[in-house]
């Protein structure tokens, strides 16, 4: 069994990270009733004897003593991390695995990347090495950050290069929150563009998220909860947006509901690696199957169900509905239109009491309405994990490598161009040591090249699949 | 004569468990429909083949379990142990922490050499427990990374190290519509390598077995467990003991002793262009058929239809191509049962499809970087395509 380390950077990254650890504990508590430290829980947590001072406290098996998250928390302001360390999760984090500063990055990628990057490089390396040492077999780094600000965007992407150099064999999965159109950070297009170049070059796999989609999901749920329709009582723990404390809407912080959705994404992504099932899917299989060419590693994710209704009977029609929902725009974590674009590859990760025949029936049913690239007409990767998420009897995470991400990137390029043309706010960046205009132009070309790749694939959409001549051999 | 089973990867281990369970259940089945003495001979023969001497009364499967990540092996070991009726050897498994990531190249070029010694040692230990080794039964899938890549590597090693015992690979043909996106690449690489080192490839297609579950057995929600149990049932009915000769009452000691070596005529075969696969076949042309009958009335069964020359290729006499094995001992509570093992053109279409899809993907170079990363180059792919096109062409030509 392998381990993963979560690196949460910046305000957004740490808030999502916090929700993730909360839900991870809840999930393992539900599965692991006897509180034995097993391999599943070791994938994200260490078991530590807190009486031992220093580093020697790790316990590899037996009863759970004290769980410590395999996490590194990085923020250039203290507010968020301090709040976490005073909150209910304070004992889950190892106080030595934090890197904080006080001044913040001022929503400036250059400050995050260049200034804090060089300032904290040694410390970062040290914390990462420590966390790797605590792992028997480290397989993956999960980086959580936002693209629009300064720390998550700048320092978060600085990290990628460090990870690639220091741990070349370990996967880098990045969960990136992209700014929406109405973002209040004026320089977010600059930050996002500069960060994109790093993601293009140093990430193995990127799961783009946008706040608007998360917000829409919440609205949909609220509608359901407040509709008062007969038979619509929702099981509290089953909300994809709920924290451990279920329905306490007032007490929850405003972004908690949205962050919980992302946290659930990460839990479902790793479920088949942690828990048993009849068709397992490890994290290295995600990259192998969903990334046909190194640059095209952006995956659109969608999660279902968003909630489970309290009435117990779940006819198989409901199960099929889950598959249909996964391909509906309402359940996506980024605004995009995969059905009208081209699929390069698609993964279906199912949890709970679902069998291979259910999977096959639904693939057959949904296939005709989806367009796959000519060289991957049956490009489906599937997995069946026996353990459902808390509060559900089954769930589905769909990951699609689809050209529908192109509009997001085009829009980003347009917003960037509008600012850059007027050279607005550019001096804040250029005055940072190591920053030049070429940083911006290179980032632009990197993104344009990526968009061009998607364009070329889209161009093949309308072409008929040609029968390539096969090798002729002498018998 | 004993068979050592090597179970590789998730698929291999899940199926392996069901096979041993089916073999054990059948051999201890009370309704053998035969005399007590005969039943005992059957049981003893089965035990010699598949299980080794028990300590405290529980038979131990003659098997080596290999997987590059621990979850499935742990499950398999505990399922066997919990049954209380048979189990796997305590030290018969080899496990790593991080799987092969559905990457044939990783299974073959990284895991293979890295763990070669450990795995071959385990197999050697199992071989030493046998009084006389008849052969190896290697269970693996083609679509993933461990069963396929590491399986090909291990089979090659077995050929180098044990040249005379038979090496038979049970390969699982994946569903046509994706279990794994790179399954066609993994499949062609596996098949081309196995062709060079295996003696016999026993094929089961997931699609076909799935249909059996749906149409013949009317199972509503089909799980992999259902599929594996059907498979195990089929394999059991082939591998359980049968009489060694007409009228003899001793169970044959050589369970895998089918002479699969087919020698085409030395005279020049007519040269043909690539035959269109759309041509209607009336029969699947065979080069060898084996019928296995178990239960009531086996000696009076009418098998003339199997000797029809129309079933076989023009350069073979039915008498050389057709064999039958029998036993009065019923299999698994079925009063009468029959199994057919066939070396024929049945696999041409599925093979052609896989090669076609892999070729199509290869032309776009999609996913190739994942393989070249671990030392499998485009040339290796081309070699595999060439070999398999030759296999397809050879089988197609049987029809003339």
UniProtKB/TrEMBL annotation, chain A:
<dbReference type="InterPro" id="IPR000217">
    <property type="entry name" value="Tubulin"/>
</dbReference>
<dbReference type="GO" id="GO:0005874">
    <property type="term" value="C:microtubule"/>
</dbReference>
<keyword id="KW-0342">GTP-binding</keyword>
<feature type="domain" description="Tubulin/FtsZ GTPase">
    <location>
        <begin position="49"/>
        <end position="277"/>
    </location>
</feature>
<dbReference type="InterPro" id="IPR003008">
    <property type="entry name" value="Tubulin_FtsZ_GTPase"/>
</dbReference>
<keyword id="KW-0493">Microtubule</keyword>
<dbReference type="InterPro" id="IPR004057">
    <property type="entry name" value="Epsilon_tubulin"/>
</dbReference>
<comment type="similarity">
    <text>Belongs to the tubulin family.</text>
</comment>
<dbReference type="InterPro" id="IPR018316">
    <property type="entry name" value="Tubulin/FtsZ_2-layer-sand-dom"/>
</dbReference>
<dbReference type="Pfam" id="PF03953">
    <property type="entry name" value="Tubulin_C"/>
</dbReference>
<comment type="subunit">
    <text>Found in a complex with TEDC1, TEDC2, TUBE1 and TUBD1.</text>
</comment>
<keyword id="KW-0206">Cytoskeleton</keyword>
<keyword id="KW-0547">Nucleotide-binding</keyword>
<dbReference type="InterPro" id="IPR017975">
    <property type="entry name" value="Tubulin_CS"/>
</dbReference>
<dbReference type="Pfam" id="PF00091">
    <property type="entry name" value="Tubulin"/>
</dbReference>
<dbReference type="GO" id="GO:0005525">
    <property type="term" value="F:GTP binding"/>
</dbReference>
<dbReference type="InterPro" id="IPR023123">
    <property type="entry name" value="Tubulin_C"/>
</dbReference>
<dbReference type="GO" id="GO:0005813">
    <property type="term" value="C:centrosome"/>
</dbReference>
<dbReference type="InterPro" id="IPR036525">
    <property type="entry name" value="Tubulin/FtsZ_GTPase_sf"/>
</dbReference>
<feature type="domain" description="Tubulin/FtsZ 2-layer sandwich">
    <location>
        <begin position="279"/>
        <end position="414"/>
    </location>
</feature>
<dbReference type="InterPro" id="IPR008280">
    <property type="entry name" value="Tub_FtsZ_C"/>
</dbReference>
<protein>
    <recommendedName>
        <fullName>Tubulin epsilon chain</fullName>
    </recommendedName>
</protein>
Automatic annotation (TrEMBL), chain B:
<dbReference type="GO" id="GO:0005525">
    <property type="term" value="F:GTP binding"/>
</dbReference>
<comment type="function">
    <text>Acts as a positive regulator of hedgehog signaling and regulates ciliary function.</text>
</comment>
<dbReference type="InterPro" id="IPR000217">
    <property type="entry name" value="Tubulin"/>
</dbReference>
<dbReference type="GO" id="GO:0005929">
    <property type="term" value="C:cilium"/>
</dbReference>
<keyword id="KW-0493">Microtubule</keyword>
<keyword id="KW-0547">Nucleotide-binding</keyword>
<keyword id="KW-0970">Cilium biogenesis/degradation</keyword>
<dbReference type="GO" id="GO:0007017">
    <property type="term" value="P:microtubule-based process"/>
</dbReference>
<keyword id="KW-0966">Cell projection</keyword>
<dbReference type="GO" id="GO:0005200">
    <property type="term" value="F:structural constituent of cytoskeleton"/>
</dbReference>
<dbReference type="GO" id="GO:0030030">
    <property type="term" value="P:cell projection organization"/>
</dbReference>
<dbReference type="InterPro" id="IPR036525">
    <property type="entry name" value="Tubulin/FtsZ_GTPase_sf"/>
</dbReference>
<keyword id="KW-0342">GTP-binding</keyword>
<dbReference type="GO" id="GO:0005814">
    <property type="term" value="C:centriole"/>
</dbReference>
<dbReference type="Pfam" id="PF00091">
    <property type="entry name" value="Tubulin"/>
</dbReference>
<keyword id="KW-0963">Cytoplasm</keyword>
<dbReference type="GO" id="GO:0005634">
    <property type="term" value="C:nucleus"/>
</dbReference>
<dbReference type="InterPro" id="IPR017975">
    <property type="entry name" value="Tubulin_CS"/>
</dbReference>
<dbReference type="GO" id="GO:0005874">
    <property type="term" value="C:microtubule"/>
</dbReference>
<keyword id="KW-0206">Cytoskeleton</keyword>
<dbReference type="InterPro" id="IPR002967">
    <property type="entry name" value="Delta_tubulin"/>
</dbReference>
<feature type="domain" description="Tubulin/FtsZ GTPase">
    <location>
        <begin position="47"/>
        <end position="247"/>
    </location>
</feature>
């Amino acid at each position: 069994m392998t381990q993963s380390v979560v690196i949460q950077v910046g305000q957004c990254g740490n808030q999502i990270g916090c929700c993730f650890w909360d839900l991870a504990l809840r999930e393992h508590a539900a599965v692991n009733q006897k509180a034995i430290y097993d391999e599943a829980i070791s994938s994200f947590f260490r078991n530590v004897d807190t009486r031992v001072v220093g580093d020697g406290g790790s316990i590899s098996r037996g009863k759970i003593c004290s769980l410590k998250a395999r996490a590194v928390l990085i923020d250039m302001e203290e507010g968020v991390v301090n709040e976490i360390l005073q909150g209910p999760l304070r004992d889950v984090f190892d106080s030595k695995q934090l890197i904080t500063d006080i001044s913040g990055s001022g929503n400036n990628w250059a400050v995050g990347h260049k200034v804090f990057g060089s300032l904290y490089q040694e410390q970062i390396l040290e914390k990462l090495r420590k966390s790797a040492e605590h792992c028997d077999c480290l397989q993956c780094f999960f980086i959580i950050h936002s693209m629009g600000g300064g720390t998550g965007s700048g320092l978060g992407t600085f990290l990628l290069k460090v990870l690639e150099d220091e741990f070349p064999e370990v996967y880098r999965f990045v969960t990136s929150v992209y700014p929406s159109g109405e973002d209040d950070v004026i320089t977010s297009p600059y930050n996002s563009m500069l960060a994109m170049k790093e993601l293009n070059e140093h990430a193995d796999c990127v799961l783009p998220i946008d706040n608007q989609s998360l917000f829409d999901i919440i609205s949909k749920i609220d509608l359901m909860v407040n509709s008062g329709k007969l038979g619509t009582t929702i099981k509290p723990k089953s909300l994809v947006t709920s924290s451990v404390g279920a329905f306490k809407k007032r007490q929850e912080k405003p972004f908690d509901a949205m962050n919980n959705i992302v946290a659930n994404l990460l839990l479902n992504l790793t479920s088949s690696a942690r828990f048993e099932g009849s068709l397992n899917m490890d994290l290295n299989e995600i990259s192998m199957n969903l990334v046909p060419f190194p640059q095209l590693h952006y995956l659109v994710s969608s999660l279902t169900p968003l909630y489970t209704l309290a009435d117990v009977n779940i006819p198989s029609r409901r199960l099929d509905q889950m598959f249909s929902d996964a391909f509906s725009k309402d359940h996506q974590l980024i605004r995009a239109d995969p059905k009208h674009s081209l699929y390069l590859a698609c993964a279906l990760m199912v949890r709970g009491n679902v069998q291979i025949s259910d999977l096959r029936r639904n693939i057959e049913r949904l296939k005709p309405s989806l367009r796959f690239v000519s060289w991957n007409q049956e490009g489906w990767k599937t997995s069946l994990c026996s353990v459902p998420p808390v509060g559900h009897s089954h769930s589905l995470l769909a990951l699609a490598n689809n050209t529908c991400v192109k509009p997001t990137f085009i829009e980003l390029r347009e917003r960037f161009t509008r600012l850059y043309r007027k050279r607005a706010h550019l001096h804040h960046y250029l005055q940072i040591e190591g920053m030049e205009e070429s940083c911006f132009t290179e980032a632009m070309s990197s993104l344009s090249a990526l968009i061009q790749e998607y364009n070329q694939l889209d161009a093949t959409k309308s072409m008929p699949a040609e029968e390539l001549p096969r090798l002729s051999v002498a018998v | 004569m004993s068979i050592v089973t090597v179970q590789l990867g998730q698929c291999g281990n899940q199926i392996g468990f069901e096979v041993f369970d089916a073999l054990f259940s059948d051999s201890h089945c009370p309704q053998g429909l035969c005399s007590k003495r005969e039943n005992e001979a059957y049981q003893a023969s089965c035990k010699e083949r598949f299980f080794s001497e028990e300590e405290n009364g529980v038979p131990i499967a003659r098997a080596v379990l290999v997987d590059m990540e621990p979850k499935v092996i742990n499950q398999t070991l505990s399922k066997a142990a919990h049954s209380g009726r048979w189990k796997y050897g305590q030290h018969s498994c080899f496990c790593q922490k991080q799987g092969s990531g559905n990457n044939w190249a990783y299974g073959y070029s990284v895991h293979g050499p890295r763990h070669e010694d450990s795995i071959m040692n385990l197999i050697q230990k199992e071989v030493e427990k046998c009084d006389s080794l008849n052969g190896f039964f290697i269970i693996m899938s083609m679509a993933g990374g461990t069963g396929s890549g590491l399986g090909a590597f291990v089979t090659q090693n077995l050929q180098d190290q044990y040249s005379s015992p038979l090496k038979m690979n049970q390969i699982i043909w994946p569903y046509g519509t994706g279990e794994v996106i790179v399954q066609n690449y993994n499949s062609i690489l596996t098949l081309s390598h196995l062709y060079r080192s295996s003696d016999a490839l026993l094929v089961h297609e997931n699609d076909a077995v799935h249909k059996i579950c749906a149409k013949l057995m009317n199972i509503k929600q089909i799980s992999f467990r259902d599929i594996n149990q059907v498979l195990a049932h089929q394999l059991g009915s082939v591998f359980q003991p049968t009489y060694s000769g007409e009228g003899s009452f001793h169970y044959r000691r050589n369970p895998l002793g089918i002479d699969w070596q087919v020698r085409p005529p030395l005279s020049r075969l007519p040269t043909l262009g690539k035959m269109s696969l759309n041509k209607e076949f009336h029969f699947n042309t065979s080069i060898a058929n084996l019928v296995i009958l178990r239960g009531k009335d086996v000696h009076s069964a009418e098998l003339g239809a199997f000797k029809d020359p129309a079933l076989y290729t023009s350069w073979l006499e039915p008498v050389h191509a057709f064999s039958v094995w029998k036993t009065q001992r019923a299999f698994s509570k079925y009063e009468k049962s029959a199994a057919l093992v066939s070396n024929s053109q049945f696999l041409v279409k599925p093979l052609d499809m896989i090669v076609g899809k892999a070729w199509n993907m290869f032309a776009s170079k999609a996913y190739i970087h994942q393989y070249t990363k671990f030392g499998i180059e485009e040339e290796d792919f081309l070699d595999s395509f060439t070999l398999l096109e030759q296999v397809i062409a050879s089988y197609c030509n049987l029809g003339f």
